[in-house]
UniProtKB/TrEMBL annotation:
Subcellular location: Cytoplasm
The protein, known as: Serine/threonine protein phosphatase 2A regulatory subunit
Family: Belongs to the phosphatase 2A regulatory subunit B56 family.
Annotated function: The B regulatory subunit might modulate substrate selectivity and catalytic activity, and also might direct the localization of the catalytic enzyme to a particular subcellular compartment.
Keywords: Cytoplasm
Gene Ontology annotations of biological process type: signal transduction
Region (Disordered) residue spans: 1-56
InterPro entries recorded: ARM-like, ARM-type_fold, PP2A_B56
One Pfam family hit: B56
Organism, as annotated: Pisum sativum (Garden pea)
Domain of life: Eukaryota
Length: 502
């Protein structure tokens, strides 16, 4: 009996239920533009009716607990200082409506209302006083950014994905039609994060791991303007929230690892590496084992993809930062480069040689001696390359005084490796510029140590004569076999050697 009586009593709707029902009902959002439009159409004669209509329209969109009966279209200058934070939350909630920007003629008035509100919010955050942003304001900011920014890119974004560059570097970048509004949201988020009024301890539970992961996913956008904004914001997040730094570095690892070993398709590798370059420059010494593992397992394998040209500058900067922090890593990096050396990709070979020169400029003698044999064996192969740019770039290494000094101190080991490549070039290379550079390097070696140079050259000639003799012996042996096979009678299906028809 008591239960039946209680069931007939009117049930009070909770604030949480009101909030959830408003966010879940699509009609709540569709009423927003009409509220904004009607609030501007009323004149001054019926001001009381206008204010009542505005209050009712905004209450239909936002829960009362959020807006505190403040009309979101009211300017900040028209409310008391004590109410500005509530108005800030209301305006953020007003901007939680997403529009379709693929059709420029759709929702023109509503889009303009949202744009003006975003501009007003940016100005408010920029000029905010010494007070702290409240937790409801932080929550409202994160919610507004999530609704406007976090999205899955349509299939056509990845249909012609350039993988961060490579085959289609000359293609025009794709621009998001919603960028005028996205730019304002990014600007507002950046102003909010960098504001001294944002308490990192209070905000860290809202700018959490999930929020950071969603931001990282946006780096795959094809719009370079968006990636540039994300780069700045992610760098500020890393600086502001120290508690999230290990997670951000780990998330970077996952993105890079998946790019290298799974997809080789991502548009934001250059921007992520640029962020990480500034992070590396701030590492304390001695370097942690975690950072050294990142260098060996992530940065060095990033030299593998064919699209390396799109992020080579940022990658090279990160690597050189590690070596400047700890010079002992130079030999490890050089071994990694030799492991992933692009034998069949000439443009990548030129880039690798450029990075090698940067590393050799800072390497010490001990680390150099550890890798000089395999290193100059590879450089010798590059000198002999038929691609003139590769050969030319390898010979340009001798224009660097520090590298020449390293070679001079270890000439007993290096000259016997390099002289054969120089001799072959001087005899048969087709490019005049390469021939000129080759003669200059030969002259430099002769001035450095004439006796050693002549000894290496005579040894090369002896080895070449020996190889020619062995080649002639092989040819003569094959001729004898062919002659012997031609004298034998063919029986059944027995295979025999036949002399080639000239």
């Amino acid at each position: 009996m008591i239960k039946q009586i209680l069931s007939k009593l009117p049930r009070k709707t909770s604030k949480t239920d009101s909030d959830e029902s408003c966010r879940g009902d699509s009609s709540c959002r569709s009423d927003l533009p009409r509220a904004g439009k009607s609030s501007r159409s009323h004149g001054g004669n019926d001001g009381a009716k206008s204010n009542a209509a505005k209050r009712n329209s905004s209450a239909a969109v936002f829960p009362t607990s959020t807006v505190s009966l403040i009309e979101p279209l009211v300017p900040f200058k028209d409310v008391a200082s004590s109410e500005k934070m509530n108005l800030f939350v209301s305006k953020l909630s007003l901007c939680c409506v997403a529009f379709d920007f693929t059709d420029p003629g759709k929702n023109i008035v509503e889009k303009d209302v949202k744009r003006k509100t975003l501009v007003e919010l940016v100005d408010f955050v920029s000029s905010f006083g010494s007070a702290r942003f409240s937790e409801p304001a932080i929550l409202a900011m994160c919610r507004m950014c999530a609704i406007n920014l976090f999205r899955v890119f349509p299939p056509n974004y990845r249909a012609n994905n350039r993988g961060g560059g490579g085959e289609n570097d000359d293609d025009e970048p794709s621009f998001d039609p919603a960028w005028p509004h996205l730019q304002l949201v990014y600007e507002l988020l950046l102003k909010f994060i960098t504001s001294s009024c944002l308490d990192a301890k209070a905000a860290k539970k809202y700018f959490d791991h999930s929020f950071i992961s969603k931001l990282l996913e946006l780096f795959d956008s094809e719009d370079p303007r968006e990636r540039d904004c994300l780069k700045t914001i992610m760098h500020r997040v890393y600086g502001k929230f120290m508690v999230h730094r290990p997670y951000i570095r780990k998330s970077f690892n996952h993105v890079f690892h998946r790019f290298v070993f799974e997809t080789e398709k991502h548009n934001g590798i250059a921007e992520l590496l640029e962020i990480f370059g500034s992070v590396v420059s701030g590492f304390a010494l001695p370097l942690k084992e975690e950072h050294k593992i990142f260098l060996w397992r992530i940065l060095i394998p990033l030299h593998k993809p064919r699209s390396m040209g799109a992020y080579f500058q940022q990658l090279s900067y990160c690597v050189t930062q590690f070596i400047e922090k700890e010079p002992k890593l130079a030999s490890i990096v050089i071994r990694g480069l030799l492991k992933y050396w692009p034998i069949t990709h000439s443009q990548k070979e030129v880039m690798f040689l450029g990075e090698l020169e940067e590393i050799l400029e800072t390497i010490n003698m001990v680390e150099f001696q550890r890798v000089m044999v395999p290193l100059f064996w590879r450089i010798g192969c590059c000198i002999s390359s038929l691609h003139f740019q590769v050969s030319e770039r390898a010979l340009y290494l001798w224009n660097n005084d520090h590298i020449v000094n390293l070679i001079a101190h270890n000439r007993q080991v290096i000259l016997p490796i390099i002289i054969p490549a120089l001799e072959r070039n001087s005899r048969s290379h087709w490019n005049p510029a390469v021939l000129n550079l080759t003669h200059n390097v030969r002259k430099m070696f002769m001035e450095m140590d004439e006796n050693l140079f002549l000894s290496c050259r005579s040894q090369f000639k002896e080895e070449e004569a020996m190889l020619n003799t062995e080649s002639e012996k092989r040819k003569e042996a094959w001729k004898q076999l062919e002659h012997a096979a031609s004298l034998k009678r063919t029986i059944g299906n027995t295979a025999v050697l036949v002399s080639p028809v000239l």
